[in-house]
Amino acid sequence: MLKVSGNDMGRKWNNIKEKKASKDANTSRVYAKFGVEIYVAAKKGEPDPEANRALKVVLERAKTYNVPKAIIDRAMEKAKGSGDENYEELRYEGFGPNGAMVIVDALTNNVNRTAPEVRSAFNKNGGNMGVSGSVAYMFDPTAVIGVEGKNAEEVLEIMLEADVDVRDIVDEDEAVIVYAEPDQFHAVQEAFKAAGVTEFTVAELTMLAQNHIELPADAQVQFEKLIDALEDLEDVQQVYHNVEFV
């Protein structure tokens, strides 16, 4: 069913923490992006998280970033009302310094704006755009859920008791992290909630690199500038990569 480990998956969690810390550093930008994501998810289905799994995932993620209720409510009301903005989901793939791999997910109401901006961010920061499929095959879609106040063995018991199939459980200094298939996201959370755990340090549907690389100091500085430039773009929702920051 699963294993309890700590090295490779733990390194992946470090990259997620790095991304989360970067997003936390600019809360207004994060909140604006969540507003769009909540609106789009609510418009695609019922504006009720219990009837719309995609919306429920976004709202669970929003909690871990402390998105204010007012922003969530505004996006939900807009979706329920006369909001008629049309957003398209786009994925771009590319390479950074020293062959680093990058995936960029965007939500945009203007494709003609988004693609040139993403390409420019790559070109100005030592990277280049790739064709569709050039990078994504080296990443795995993954649900990542973290909790505090439990150890790995206790979390394993919770998952076994609920008969939830997960890939791995990693005991980190700050939290215990559960890695699972994306379709198990809700099952993992419900298992925790049944065990009395209702707060999550992370609740993400992400793309985890199958292998990681380390960059020389100068290349890492340039790569961090690339990631920052991409995340600063209005239409970019998520940026994934295979670099292990040191």
Automatic annotation (TrEMBL):
Basic and acidic residues bias: start-end ranges: 9-20
Subcellular localization: Cytoplasm
Domain TACO1/YebC-like second and third residues, every copy: 87-243
ATP-binding keyword on record: no
Keywords: Cytoplasm, DNA-binding, Transcription, Transcription regulation
InterPro entries: Integrase-like_N, TACO1_YebC-like_2nd/3rd_dom, TACO1_YebC_N, Transcrip_reg_TACO1-like, Transcrip_reg_TACO1-like_dom3, Transcrip_reg_TACO1_YeeN, YebC-like
Ranges for domain TACO1/YebC-like N-terminal: 11-81
Domain of life according to the entry: Bacteria
Keyword NADP: no
SUPFAM superfamilies, alphabetized: YebC-like (SSF75625)
Chief place of localization: cytoplasm
Chain residue ranges for the region called Disordered: 1-20
Family: Belongs to the TACO1 family. YeeN subfamily.
Entry protein name: Probable transcriptional regulatory protein GCM10008014_20770
Name of the gene: yeeI
